[in-house]
Amino acid sequence: xxxxxxxxxxxxxxxxxxxxxxxxxxxxxxxxxxxxxxxxxxxxxxxxxxxxxxxxxxxxxxxxxxxxx
Length: 69
What we know:
By secondary structure, this protein is mainly alpha-helical. Helices cover 78% and strands 0% of the residues.
């Protein structure tokens, strides 16, 4: 469970970033194991979900900071 004060957008961003980092780790492990033809969905997850989660987290931070002012 997330802290009750955390905005929903922040929780989504953290979750997406975490999933993206797991995908990045999986890509590195598979590449180090000698696999060359990695699944396209895994590469897309590593390349899109990670920055999307970071972007959502940053947007949530900006919105939270504006709401406090």
